[in-house]
Specification:
By secondary structure, this protein is of the alpha/beta class. Helices cover 50% and strands 10% of the residues. It has 16 helices and nine strands. The strands form three sheets. A five-stranded parallel sheet has the order 2-3-6-1-7. Strand 4 and strand 5 form a beta hairpin. The chain is elongated, with a radius of gyration of 25 Å.
């Protein structure tokens, strides 16, 4: 097992290998790091790898999603509070910085911090000292900070939504996690690894990917990146009754509506129709083992029209479709 596998990072593409090489280099020096990348690209996994490959591996790794912290309690969550510091403070709390002492504090979605919280974080980064909310004693913590965001912090700085001095403090070393669509060959490698893990987790015989699923995995752009791929494989694994997985459109209708409400009406309507067409055609082809003639019959359509629709959505390219059609 190579070192990347030991820290749950997997991929053979040059883009991924370059990122992992940077992770290894960064882990050797004990400085603040900023990780950027789209949602689902594995920023927290990268942060964990930096921690567990580095000199702080025996210390705690404390992850915190800054976007999930209530604005009024951010400082209390990070730096702790004394009893009675505010209405609900019935007992003292040490805070996440104290919990991470000797290890690493991972601040995900750091762009979500208010300007007031950013000022508090900046003060801590300057000398690693802090005060609990409601307290007067100055405390110290030996903590490595790794921050991450899927936002453009430089643009937020220009818009006066993020402190320039804090960005400089966070961005001592930077790492960009590549999007899955940039990692040629990795989606299929990851999908197969997820299948193997799920078989072990649920203690069931190994399952494989149907050729049309392989084609879909390789052609789809995966806007949700590795997280989306993992969720799709997990869902289809649980729903699959046979030994082969057939992948359908990865977005639920609710997800599609959430994306479409940001589009003009005509564009949203066109997308909804295209998604329905793909699901409908794909479902019929699954039921007929890829036989276009029989699928067209079930759809009440002329064979050439149905075939054209299948080609439109990239559903007539897998070997199984051509072989099944020949046998008809």
């Amino acid at each position: 097992m190579n070192s990347a596998s030991r820290v749950n990072l997997l991929g053979s593409s040059p883009q991924f290998q370059q990122a992992y090489s940077q992770i290894q280099k960064i882990s050797r020096v004990d400085v603040t790091v900023f990780i950027e990348g789209e949602t689902g690209t594995g920023k927290e996994l990268a942060a964990r790898a930096i921690h567990y490959l580095g000199g702080r591996r025996d210390g705690p790794f404390i992850p915190v999603n800054c976007g999930a912290l209530p604005e009024t309690l951010v400082e209390s969550e990070l730096f702790g509070h004394e009893r009675g510091a505010f209405t609900d403070a019935k007992a003292a709390s040490p805070g996440l910085v104290s919990e991470a002492d000797g290890g690493t504090l991972f601040l995900d979605e750091v762009d979500a911090l208010s300007l007031k919280a950013q000022a508090s974080l900046l003060r801590f980064l300057q000398d690693r000292t802090y005060r609990r909310v409601g307290g007067s004693a100055t405390r110290q913590a030996d903590v490595r900070i790794i921050a991450a965001s899927n936002a453009n912090l430089y643009k937020l700085v220009e818009d006066r939504q993020f402190r320039r001095d804090l960005l400089y403090r966070l961005n001592v070393l930077s790492l960009r996690m590549p999007a899955l669509r940039e990692r040629s060959g990795d989606p299929l490698e990851l999908a197969q690894a997820f299948l193997a893990r799920l078989s072990h987790q649920y203690r069931v015989p190994a399952k494989t990917l149907h050729p049309d699923a392989v084609n879909f995995i390789e052609q789809y752009s995966w806007p949700g990146n590795v997280r989306e791929l993992e969720n799709v494989i997990h869902r289809e694994f649980l729903m699959c009754e046979g030994g082969e997985l057939h992948l359908f459109a990865p977005q639920s209708p609710e997800q599609s509506e959430r994306h479409d409400d940001r589009l003009p009406f005509k564009a949203a309507k066109a997308r909804a129709i295209a998604e329905f067409e793909r699901r409908y055609v794909n479902d019929l082809l699954q039921r007929t083992d890829g036989n276009i003639t029989r699928a067209a019959r079930l759809a009440g359509q002329d064979r050439s029209a149905f075939g054209k629709l299948a080609r439109k959505h990239g559903l007539s390219q897998s070997p199984s479709l051509s072989s099944a059609e020949t046998a008809d």
